[in-house]
Each structure stands twice: as C-alpha cells, then as structure tokens.
Description:
The chain has helices at 3-14, 68-73, 130-133, and strands at residues 30-33, 35-37, 40-47, 51-57, 64-66, 81-87, 90-104, 107-116, 126-128, 138-141, 146-149. It is mostly beta strands. The strands form two sheets. A six-stranded mixed β-barrel has the order 3-4-9-5-8-7. It has a three-stranded antiparallel beta sheet with strand order 1-11-10, with no helix packed on it. It is globular.
Amino acid sequence: MDQTSRWLLVALVLAAPPLARAFADGTPETPVRLVQSGRGWVLDARVNDHVTGRFLLDTGATSCVITPLMAGRLGLFPPQRHIEVDTAAGTVRAGVVRLQSVAVGPRRADRIQALVLDGMEDDLDGVIGLNFLDQFTYAIDPRRGILELR
C-alpha cells in the first residue's frame, strides 16, 4: 500500500459520522461551506493569519495535521520535536508544531498543536481535528454541506 493510500485509509477510518444540527439555545452559528469529496468533507482554513489551505474535516482525529509542504510555507519545517503516532495504517513518526492560529470562516482558535505528516493527497494541506473543533460548539449539516461553529 502506497503512502497516499495509507493516509486515505487513516482519514476514512478516523472520520466519524456527521453530527446532526444542534443549536437550539439561540446562539448564532457561523456557517462554513463544506465540499463533499470521496474522502469526506473538505473546507478552507487560514493558518497563522496568512496561509490558506484545503483541509479535511475529521471529527475522529484527535489533532490537527499539516503536510510538510504546509509546514514549510509556515516556516515550521523541519519540526524540532517528533512523536510516534498510532494510526490505522500503523505507527508512524510525526513532527509536532505549534500553530499560532487556525481560522475556519470567522472563527479562530489560537495556539493549536498540529502533527506534521506526509502522505496526504496532493490537493489537501492537512486535517482539521478535534483540538480545533473542541474550542467551539459545532454541528455538521450534511444536507446543506455546512459546518456550523459558535
């Protein structure tokens, strides 16, 4: 199995079923357009206030992930620290970096840890995982192709 197939397998195994829309208390949500792909939902995100990329939305991934190319664009490559990460494709060595910020639509989270992993499909710059999403109340509306954050 090649590296791209392995990464796709990891993303598919980690992807959780979409969440139902769940904002009943009246707090306004921020809708973000999602694009359905063979991998799942993809969205645009802005990292460190100036680099925009395409990210897989993965509610089953513990951490955000960026590619080595994205890390280089951010001036974070090579990472100074590495850890072993268990994935569906086995244990891999991943760099660990600290992103100043990650913004999806107008919602922004600061000081987000990300793993630097190779093997993502060419049109993706990373994964938006739970360490970003858990900063917000969120829901996915699969019929409208919308991620709602508040």
